[in-house]
Design a protein that fits this description.
Blueprint (H helix, E strand, L loop, with lengths): L2 E5 L2 E4 L4 E8 L7 E7 L6 E7 L5 E3 L7 E6 L4 E6 L8 E8 L13 H5 L8 E2 L3 E6 L1
Parallel strand pairs: 2-11
Antiparallel strand pairs: 1-3, 3-8, 4-5, 4-9, 5-6, 7-8, 9-10, 9-11
């Protein structure tokens, strides 16, 4: 059973930066997509970005494009969400999620899995508990 744990959230001033981490454990992962999502108070959860394990491709929502970057440390089995130029509208609980429907399927080894998974929440079967990010004005 896969477990995801987010960390790195906190309080930051507008214009500042934070780096969130998503650590995966419990299973050997080969072909998968990691999605980052967020939910602001009173709003529905929305997609932020996606990372494909196969080729390192990334995809971002328009609202964060150019400010947020997803990367991965393979040795630590951790995916990061680097957030720059934060503004109060970025205040939310941030979640990472895993779509590992491609596990063990060699066919997907060279594909950009973010094309398959995107930011469709229903395609992600494993979720972390979230980490709070608060941006003050």
């Amino acid at each position: 059973q896969v477990q995801l744990v987010e960390s790195g959230g906190g309080l930051v001033q507008s214009g500042g930066s934070l780096r969130l981490s998503c650590a995966a454990s419990g299973s050997t992962l080969d072909y998968y997509a990691i999605g980052w999502f967020r939910q602001a108070p009173g709003k529905e959860r929305e997609g932020v970005g996606c990372f494909s394990s196969t080729d390192g491709s990334t995809y971002y929502a328009d609202s964060v494009k150019g400010r947020f970057t997803i990367s991965r440390d393979y040795a630590k089995n951790t995916v990061y969400l680097e957030m720059n130029s934060l503004n109060p509208e970025d205040t939310a609980v941030y979640y990472c999620a895993l779509d590992n429907r491609y596990a063990g399927k060699f066919l997907y080894r060279n594909l950009d899995l973010c094309v398959q998974s995107g930011l469709s929440q229903g395609k992600y079967g494993y979720w972390g508990r979230g980490t709070q990010v608060t941006v003050s004005s």
